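Minutes, project huddle
Topic: does the predicted pose make sense with nicotinamide-adenine-dinucleotide bound?
PN asked that the exact inputs be recorded in the minutes so nobody has to dig through chat later. Recorded below.
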Amino acid sequence: MKIEQLFNVKGRAVIVTGGASGIGLGYAEVLAANGARVTLLDIDEHRIEAEVNRLRAAGMEVNGRVADVTDHTGLDRAINQAVSDYGRLDVMFANAGIDPGPGYVGAWVGDERPRLTEGAIESYTDNRWNRVIDVNLNGIFATARAAARHMRPQGSGRIVITTSAASQRVEPAIGAAYMAAKAGAAHFMRSLALELAFYQITVNAVAPGMFVTNIGGGHSKDPAVQRALASVIPLHRVGFPKDIGGLALLLASDAGSYITGQEIVIDGGLCLGRVD
Ligand SMILES: NC(=O)c1ccc[n+]([C@@H]2O[C@H](COP(=O)([O-])OP(=O)(O)OC[C@H]3O[C@@H](n4cnc5c(N)ncnc54)[C@H](O)[C@@H]3O)[C@@H](O)[C@H]2O)c1
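Predicted holo structure (tokens), as shared on screen:
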């Protein structure tokens, strides 16, 4: 089969939560650039407007909808509207997520990694814990549930959950709730993949390593931070949203139709360990 056919996403109706920035925008942009009809669903109204205008100006078929993944009634409503805009739902990227704040050490890399009391388990507040679980785990559940309600009657669909390298490997510089939420989302993905396979719906996860986005106030945009992170990544560079494009096309197109229940790590080798 020709590559144009195998990876064809033309006309596919796609929703991306957290689609107005970073990795979600990376998914949205590569799909829309290849003819998919994409809804950016995000809590940030201004970013949605800016990105929808930018992508439409480049000739792409893109809509925006404001929704908070922690408000499940509002989320269902926004997803229903997005589905009625395009008449179906082929691919759902359950991607929206937040940074959990500091972990129990104060630096990502280096020999000096001082312990922080703020991120230590004894002082980890209920508020911090619950907020991260609410967005990064409960939000994924509610998004996937809404997708399944539309996909099951169609007898087709793709659900792609953004987890993290943190679901497989503990990162002490980011808070413990993030580890729990991402590992929970990864195993939820497997449970859902088994449940929905009968209906020809695949469910997979993308687990990014260190990507430059707006998460946590965009701290990874600092070149010094990027250099430090690159030093512990075997490919010796951080990831950018455009690096996610190939995987997005694979999982959204016929090329990925027999892949389900998998968490695909995309991290420049970070999870392998360190050699030089
Ligand atoms: N950047 C990384 O290095 C990295 C690594 C591993 C995993 N991830 C995961 O990738 C996903 C995307 O993060 P990113 O790095 O692109 O960050 P980002 O901040 O650039 O984008 C996240 C988007 O989600 C939106 N969002 C946040 N809370 C929301 C809510 N309650 N409802 C709806 N939208 C909401 C934000 O407005 C933003 O547009 C997250 O799940 C994150 O945990 C990121």
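Observations noted during the meeting:
- The chain is about 40% helix and 15% strand.
- Residues 17-18, 20-24, 42-44, 47, 68-70, 95-98, 135, 139, 162, 164, 208, 210-211, 213-215 surround nicotinamide-adenine-dinucleotide (CB under 6 Å).
No decisions taken; revisit at the next huddle.
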